[in-house]
Amino acid sequence: MALLRTPTVHDHVALAEIELCGELMIAASATDGERLSPDRIDEVLKVRADRGERSPCR
After folding, report:
1. Quick one: 27 exposed, middle or buried, by C-beta within 10 A (0-12, 13-18, 19+)?
2. Which of 3, 20, 30, 56 has the CA that lies 20 to 30 A from 36?
């Protein structure tokens, strides 16, 4: 009897999103407050949000 195999598909974008969500959950569980601040979220996600400040590169 032949075994039917389902090919494994890797969606790298979905995997990255899952990892980022996990990082946010870890940070949220470690916070003393009720919510993460926008600055803390940016720090966890390793992004710099443009909050009306102009970058010297522009």
Report:
1. middle
2. 56
pLDDT given at position 55: 47
DSSP per position, 41-55: HHHHHT----SSPPP
Task: Report how far residue 19's alpha carbon sits from residue 13's, in angstroms, rounded to the nearest whole number.
Answer: 10
Which residue ranges of the chain lie beneath pLDDT 70? 1-9, 49-58
Torsion sign (Cα): 29, 32, 36, 42? negative
User: What's the DSSP call for residue 33?
Assistant: S
**CB-based contacts of 31: which residues, under 8 Å, 6+ apart?**
40
pTM recorded for the entire structure:
0.61
